[in-house]
Design goal:
Elements: E1 6-7, H1 9-19, H2 27-35, E2 42-44, E3 47-51, H3 52-60
Antiparallel strand pairs: 1-3, 2-3
Helix pairs in contact: 1-2
Length: about 80
């Protein structure tokens, strides 16, 4: 059994850039897939750790972030 490579979003990006220096993956994209729950997260205090291999597999599968419909006009405040 191997130990998973758990990293923060910034460290995941460093791992990806180490393998592919010209990668177009951004820190913002990695943070968004974490926020959307596309990869499992382990919360360690204030840090959110993800498995580097899970992120790389997600990118290799062709995952796209779902579009959010924009809200126009003034919305009523729910009380």
């Amino acid at each position: 059994m191997s130990i998973p490579r758990m990293r923060t979003a910034a460290k995941v990006l460093e791992e990806i850039r180490a393998d592919d220096p010209n990668s177009e993956v951004t820190l913002n994209y990695i943070r968004r897939i974490i926020r959307l729950g596309a990869v499992p997260v382990v919360e360690c205090g204030r840090k959110k750790l993800v498995n580097v291999d899970d992120v790389i597999n997600l990118l290799a599968s062709g995952y796209t972030i779902p579009e959010i419909e924009p809200v126009y006009g003034i919305r009523q405040v729910q009380v």
